[in-house]
Design brief:
- By secondary structure, the chain is mostly beta strands.
- It has one helix at residues 8-11, and strands spanning 20-26, 29-35, 44-52, 58-69, 78-86, 91-95, 109-115, 123-127, 135-143, 152-163, 170-180.
- The protein is built from one helix and eleven strands.
- Strands 1, 2, 3, 4, 5, 6, 7, 8, 9, 10 and 11 form an eleven-stranded antiparallel sheet that branches.
- A hairpin with an 8-residue loop joins strand 9 and strand 10.
- It starts with 7 loop residues before the first helix and ends with a strand.
- Residues 1-9 have low confidence and may be disordered.
Length: 182
């Protein structure tokens, strides 16, 4: 009796291309992003970095960058939502705003930047605040696919981000979920 093996090598078919996703309700707007390495790559990116510190410890950092438009109702407004997790692993990250968004190698943070189409010099940054409840990110999966040094990271996020110039101005982020790799 012969055994029929139906994998990508014996059948000549290529495995399906990995699809990334990010979905959330940001400022009352549904945001749903999907892409692959070859399609719509610019709208959603994951970036994995491994580095050593002065104490000889190895650290793993992960960034998720999402390009979002029309958060304020203007179709031409460009926004970027970024989450950075230092020492990434499965678990809950309480992002408190203690880490500066300008310390890319030392901190975990979430930041929403909104640039007006009418005035490209107008940029408003929203981040977690040390004076308020933390922005929560839960990493539910951190796995290396076979034969890869780049992990797939999955998780959820929720919280409030505050205007860095006016804490009374805030953006609510609800029901966030992501699955990214590249």
């Amino acid at each position: 009796m012969a055994c029929k093996k139906q994998d990508s090598v014996s059948s000549g078919k290529q495995p399906a291309e990995f699809s990334q996703q990010l979905a959330a309700n940001i400022a009352g707007k549904a945001v749903v992003l999907n892409n692959t390495m070859s399609q719509n790559r610019e709208i959603l990116k994951g970036m994995f970095t491994m580095f050593g510190d002065n104490g000889g410890q190895r650290r793993q950092m992960y960034n998720i960058d999402a390009a979002i438009s029309a958060l304020d109702g203007d179709i031409n407004t460009k926004s970027t939502f970024r989450i950075q997790l230092n020492n990434v692993k499965t678990g809950i990250f309480d992002i408190t705003g203690e880490d500066s968004v300008f310390q890319p190698l030392t901190g975990s943070y979430a930041v929403l930047s909104i640039r007006s189409a009418a005035n490209s010099y107008s940029l408003v940054l929203y981040t977690a605040s040390v004076k308020k409840q933390p922005f929560k990110v839960q990493v539910t999966g951190f796995e290396y696919p076979p034969y890869s040094s780049i992990p797939t990271v999955t998780g959820t996020f929720n919280g409030v981000l505050y205007n860095t110039q006016n804490i009374a101005d805030s953006v609510i982020v609800k029901n966030g979920a992501f699955k990214v790799r590249f």
